[in-house]
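seq:
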Amino acid sequence: MGDMRKIEESAKPVYVIESIPVGGDHAVSPEEIAREGIPTPAHLRIGPELGRGAMGHVHPTLDRNLLRHVALKRLDLAHTVHEMYVGGFIAEAQMTGQLEHPNIVPVHELGVTKSGVPYFTMKLVQGGSLDTWLRDPWRAPGSEERIEQGLEIFLKVCDAVAYAHHRGVIHRDLKPENIMVGDYGQVYLMDWGLAKLTKTRPASGKSAQMEAKGPVGTPMYMAPEQAAGDPDKMDERTDVFGLGALLYEIVSGRCPYGDIQKINVMVKMARKGQVVPIEEATKSIPVPMALKEIVTRAVQPRPEDRYPTVLELQEAVRSFLRGGLHLPTETYEAGQVIIEEGAQGDRAYMIVSGSCRAYRTVDGTEETLATMHAGDAFGEMALLLDEPRAASVVADEPTTVLVLDKKTLDEGIGGGGWTAAMVRAMAQRFHDLEQQVRESGIRR
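struct:
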């Protein structure tokens, strides 16, 4: 191995990390080091603060030994006099360091300064938070881009949380600000400072913050049992709620407890499980009913009513993605005819929001056949049989529908393969039976 001093001497960087220079004259000043208790290991060049939380600070840093850029997180100097905070910070570093997963940011080093300030270094993620991602105007709630890309990010977060649960760790602070989205598709679940072990005692003792009683987490995303404050009642289903809250915001652009700004009011709502129904949060945007049903189950107030595991929630979302997310939507005003009896067509529809009425015209009079609401489909025979429309459908109120055309269906069921042939044969049999019933009624 070469002389480490030569490596250090050759490292005279003035790098830019996320627009913040690190190294040389841009490192933090001696006065700031003394005032803030910033660590001063010889091999680390620490840059100006990137951000801070309730107890910690994050700095871009150059590791001069390995010649790589890292993020350094340190405990606030004022909190070093409290054993609970010190133990919790060290436990966070130890737990995160043991959770080796592609969607959990890796920890490189853990240390404590002479003045008692614990710190650790971790991978510096180039990108932004999911919170910033969700607020991009190009990804408006209800848009295909937001749902499709947001669910792909969500599935990666589920991977991270499911792995942590396998290792006996629950996160307890799942929110967009704690998820980093890299420039090249990387997704990292960050900030395990409120995590709790479910299988063993804390790495740093019972006094660690993870064992403290009282509300824990971020009020806007808290499960009721978090707001109630008994750590013994928090388990994997607590994180299922947190993931459901993330999904709620991806889908609606809102948080489960509404737009209330007062933290104490929100904590009370969380304690009572007063989640705003997703139907209300999405009444002005098109969201498929199947996706709303997933969100509703994930954020149920009672843990036993939620998905029992993250993997089951994840599979429900995957099934949804396989089942028609990419279909385009169309919106119709009240009174507008969507399909017309006797016309040729090659498209079917599923109602996302609103309601429609199906009717036939008999001797010049409209005969209502059915009233349809969100989740109902119509016009499907046109996809399978070259037959005129058997009835008309009109929007009773402003209505949004998903549209499936024959080309998309053929791609989905294999075009000319045996599956397509079987579906068409079944449709033809159903059509023939319907014709027989109709003709029988006419003869009577």
